[in-house]
């Protein structure tokens, strides 16, 4: 009979420790990524972000357009087996999620967006830099 309370206390302690670990803030940091690169933010909870690439709707240099368009950087936030897509756009608010434990992700203010080029061309790559802030 003594083993049942011991098992319950051990199980409860494990749940509490996991809950405490999950509420710790993620570190503030700057990340530089290339397309399809992933970073692990909290390996113990299998929390990661993958930079999927950029969607570039900007007007080419040799065209006249109704709107200037924008570059939107696509990401996937993974927590365990669950994936959630999000986008970061220069000059727009960042991204928050409960999985980030109170942190916010924003594009780095000094990010140099590659030039769009001519109509048939697109930049070869769209590297990205973002910052994670606690708020």
Notes on the structure:
The chain is of the alpha+beta class. The protein has one domain (26-134): Tick-borne Encephalitis virus Glycoprotein, domain 1 (Sandwich), CATH 2.60.98. It is 16% helix and 38% strand. The chain has 1 helix and 8 strands, in the order αββββββββ. It has one helix spanning 3-23; strands at residues 29-33, 37-42, 47-56, 71-79, 82-88, 95-96, 103-107, 128-134. The strands form 2 sheets. Strands 1-8-7-6 form a 4-stranded antiparallel β-sheet, with no helix packed on it. A hairpin with a 6-residue loop joins β6 (95-96) and β7. The relative contact order is 0.21.
Question: Would you kindly provide a brief summary of this structure?
Answer:
The chain is α+β, with helices and mostly antiparallel strands and 135 residues long. It has 1 helix and 8 strands; from the N terminus they run αββββββββ.
């Amino acid at each position: 009979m003594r083993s049942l309370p011991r098992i319950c206390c051990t199980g409860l302690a494990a749940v509490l420790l996991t809950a405490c670990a999950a509420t710790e803030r993620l570190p503030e940091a700057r990340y530089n990524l290339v397309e399809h690169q992933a970073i692990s933010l909290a390996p113990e909870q299998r929390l990661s972000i993958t930079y999927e690439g950029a969607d570039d709707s900007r007007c080419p240099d040799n065209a006249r357009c109704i709107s200037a368009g924008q570059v939107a950087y696509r990401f996937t936030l993974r927590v365990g087996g669950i994936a959630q897509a999000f986008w970061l756009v220069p000059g727009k608010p960042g991204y928050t999620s409960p999985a980030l434990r109170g942190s916010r992700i924003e594009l780095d203010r000094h990010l140099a967006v590659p030039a769009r080029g001519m109509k048939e061309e697109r930049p070869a790559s769209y590297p990205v830099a973002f910052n994670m802030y606690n708020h």
